[in-house]
Amino acid sequence: MSAAAEDARIVPVVIVVPPRVLLLDIAGPIEVLRKANLEQAAVRFTVAYVGPSPTAHSSIGLGLSGIAPLPEALPADALVLVPGMADVPIDGIGADGEDYAAAEVAIVQWLTKTIRPGMRLASICSGALLAGRAGLLDGQECTTHHGTVAELIRAAPLARVVENRIFVDSGERLTSAGITAGVDLMLHIVARETSHATALAVARHLVVYLRRGGSDPQLSPWLEGRNHIHPAIHRAQDAIVADPAHHWSVAALAAVAAASPRNLSRLFNDQTGMSVTHYVNQIRIALAHELVTASRLDMERVAEQAGFASARQFRRAWNRVHATAPSRLRREQTPR
């Protein structure tokens, strides 16, 4: 192991494997973590698989083995991931529910006993039902697959269940909709634990560029314009995302992309549907939004760190995107 890897901050991820587990609920999000470990050295995600049984039958008929017992305790900084379950696996095994109800009860009891305040729990698809039955979503906004929303409302009557969301981040509780939304949720977690640049690199590797944020009805600015596979444009976009405050002229980005300025402008419009300048401003506003809502910096410092020449220029660009002024948005999102 390299010295950099030894110095990395460790994020322990514990996957609870239920019976009839939806295999994509595990494979997709954990592939995000595997790639994130390769993209940067500052944070390392470790993965452990636990469950009520050392083996599990998956939704696609593939058997899983080597599953560790449900532990007595977890690290305080652990991220616990609960994937969903199939009603009927592809081969029909377990469709009658034999022994599976008892395994689900064991998971719910373990979650109730083990997950303490301060610990993060993420669910994918119908995994929210187990978290809900354990009382871990009480008082929280949450979501699940559209086909199990009604069931979650019954299982967790004290939760605020919302529909039509890809994922919901309520701080210690993160829930996502059906199956591939688990990839979106894990990209969100990677961005928060590492950087947007790392999450974008992983999304690019997995070819899942066109994604929405958890509660934003619009496309996330960090991922909008990424639903293409043109390497020169991705190089330019990667450079912008890595340092939004840099003075990114078309000529400077053309050098990064190994294209002429004229060709870069044409390709950028063709591949992203927007101009280079529009994309740069979009990323700067996305960064500014994070600084406004997650810091106490004054608006002049927000403008400077986001790459705007002045607070006035920042506010002008902000008002083209947001209906609420940045100072008012900060007041509205500050707990009373």
UniProtKB/TrEMBL annotation:
Protein name stated in the entry: Transcriptional regulator, AraC family with amidase-like domain
The domain of life is Bacteria
Tell me where the signal peptide lies: none
> Does the keyword Transcription feature in the UniProt annotation?
yes
Q: Which organism is it from?
A: Sphingomonas gellani
Residue stretches making up the HTH araC/xylS-type domain? 234-332
One Pfam family in the UniProt entry: HTH_18
What keywords were assigned to this record? Transcription, Transcription regulation
Indicate the segments annotated as coiled coil, or none if absent. Answer: none
